[in-house]
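A quick aside before the break. I want you to see a complete sequence-to-structure record at least once, exactly as it would be stored in a machine-readable document. Don't worry about memorizing anything.
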Amino acid sequence: MNVRRSAAVLAATVAIGTGTPAVAASPSPSPSLPSGLYGSSDPTYDGVWRQSLALIALYRVHAEPAAAAVDWLAGQQCESGAFPAFRANPAEACDAKLMVDTNSTAAAAQALSAVGGHGTAVTKAVTWLKSVQNKDGGWGYTPGGASDANSTSVVIGALMTQHNPVSTIRNGAKSPYDALLKLSLPCADGGAFAYQPDKKGKLTANADATAAAVVGALGQGMVSVKAGDKKNAACSDAARPTPKDAAANGSAYLAKAVAKDGHLTSALPGSENQPDYGNTADAVVALAAQGGTAAATGPLRWLERNSAKWAEQNGPAAYAQLILAAEAGGADPSDFGGTDLVKQLTATGPAPVTASQDDSDTSVWWMVGAGLAAGAGIGFLLSSRNKRKQP
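That is the input. The structure line, written in tokens, reads:
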């Protein structure tokens, strides 16, 4: 859910100036990839992000991941507390050439908090995030970059791991909620959230940003999101809107956007419009967080019928998004349109070790060896969701 823009897409867009980088799926993991990593595609731009989503999704369905998967993620952290999208050699200290970012750091903080046993690492990550908070109360993808709704929302999820009220995390007078409210549109413009203002300061409705910001404005994150109990009503402008007002309006925008076809639609320049599976999954989470499972029924059922091929092509992050959507929307992730999402996600990474009931050392160590040797990978086809206009 959460987050929503892949860190891979953002970094690749900056590096090569295109909006839709693609990575071909491979039938088996590359020998050069870390053994604890989920997925078989190049992790340069999304390793920490997809690993974090995978661990969070498994936590949400009470499935214990392999220790190797957790260790790999923990080993990506820099001494500062920040995480890069991918750190090829964890044995080497992070330097100025290694780009760290708020999205990877916030997602990893939530994942390590969920699996437990990494309290110091989580605290360091959150401390670093606080240190790069912008004066408007929000965060951009890179430290010091202009605040955006997606980054601010995923950081809110990380802040929740410390059990401190989000409203108290401030740079001067501004909190993360102030940053989100600044990016919310009035009902005359749909009540959505913008990703960022354009160069002239204009806000444009963005479904991806809206799905993220609804959850963030409700003070929730990928680990903590839960079904709400407020009906998704029509958009309503308040004289002095609160974060919850903005979340309700954003949810109303999403409900309207998926009402006709059951899904959100991507609108990339030069491409034919097509269903946006990832953003639809995130919209399900947002709709459920605001209005309960009934509010997410339409798009959730559409995903059950149509998302299997997309998830197979896109790998662990896609399976994780669907698991989060299913869990938030009240569906069964182990039988999602006939697909066991948990089994499919687990198959993209190191298999969890299952201890034998036999007390013999031989049996136990055979199981450990088998668990470490198992695992299959599938590719991750990057989809661009940065700053594009949504219906």
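Two observations worth writing down. The two ends are 19 Å apart (CA to CA). The chain is about 45% helix and 5% strand. We'll return to this after the break.
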